TrEMBL record:
Entries under PANTHER family matching the protein: CYCLIC PYRANOPTERIN MONOPHOSPHATE SYNTHASE (PTHR22960:SF29), MOLYBDOPTERIN COFACTOR SYNTHESIS PROTEIN A (PTHR22960)
Name this protein carries in UniProt: Cyclic pyranopterin monophosphate synthase
Functional note: Catalyzes the conversion of (8S)-3',8-cyclo-7,8-dihydroguanosine 5'-triphosphate to cyclic pyranopterin monophosphate (cPMP).
Organism lineage string: Bacteria, Pseudomonadati, Pseudomonadota, Alphaproteobacteria, Sphingomonadales
Catalytic activity: (8S)-3',8-cyclo-7,8-dihydroguanosine 5'-triphosphate = cyclic pyranopterin phosphate + diphosphate
Superkingdom of the organism of origin: Bacteria
Binding site for substrate: 75-77, 111-112
Stretches assigned to the Molybdopterin cofactor biosynthesis C (MoaC) domain: 15-148
Enzyme's top EC category: lyase
MF (Gene Ontology): cyclic pyranopterin monophosphate synthase activity
Keyword GTP-binding appears in the UniProt entry: no
Annotated metabolic or biological route of this protein: Cofactor biosynthesis; molybdopterin biosynthesis
Family of this protein: Belongs to the MoaC family.
Originating organism: Qipengyuania algicida
Keywords on record: Lyase, Molybdenum cofactor biosynthesis
């Protein structure tokens, strides 16, 4: 199998050829946070936003983003995801979003869950910006991945 690199023999960017890799079950989980005023948090959690149900819109946006990561991130492979979930946890000063995805394939889903979490957070911002334009999105990171040649990985707490 050829070396897995995004550079061809002339140093030009290319999509990695994964045709020689074995298909394995692969999963990944990512998280991110959006911090906001207590007024915005209350409106968001009570469903009192002028634009409607922020959690429903954010969940759909995150899932759609995961499915389209290959179109959004240069050199990412388009993947046939088997599952994508977006979950929310209300915290004292905001919302934590957790995105997970899985498939059986030749490449992992880390970029898909990172994209899903980011877009879900941006959607929460969009839904609540009329109340708090100063919301802060931060801490988007990969929490875990399984499968593939590199095996399993977990972030440190």
């Amino acid at each position: 199998m050829a070396e897995l690199t995004h550079l061809d023999e002339h140093g030009a960017a290319r999509m990695v050829d994964v045709s020689g890799k074995s298909e394995t079950h692969r999963t990944a989980v990512a998280e991110g946070r959006i911090r906001m005023s207590s007024e915005a948090l209350e409106a968001l959690t009570q469903g009192d936003l002028p634009k409607g149900d922020a959690f429903a819109a954010s969940r759909i946006a995150g899932i759609m983003a995961a499915k389209r990561t290959g179109e959004l991130i240069p050199l990412c492979h388009p993947l046939g995801l088997e599952s994508v979930t977006i979950d929310f946890a209300v915290e004292d000063d905001g919302i934590r979003v957790e995105a997970s995805a899985s498939l059986t394939g030749r490449t992992g889903v880390e970029m898909e869950v990172m994209t899903a979490a980011s877009i879900a957070l941006l959607t929460l911002y969009d839904m609540g910006k009329a109340i708090d334009k100063g919301m802060v999105i931060d801490s988007v990171r990969l929490l875990s991945k399984t499968g593939g040649k590199s095996g399993d990985w977990r972030a440190r707490p």
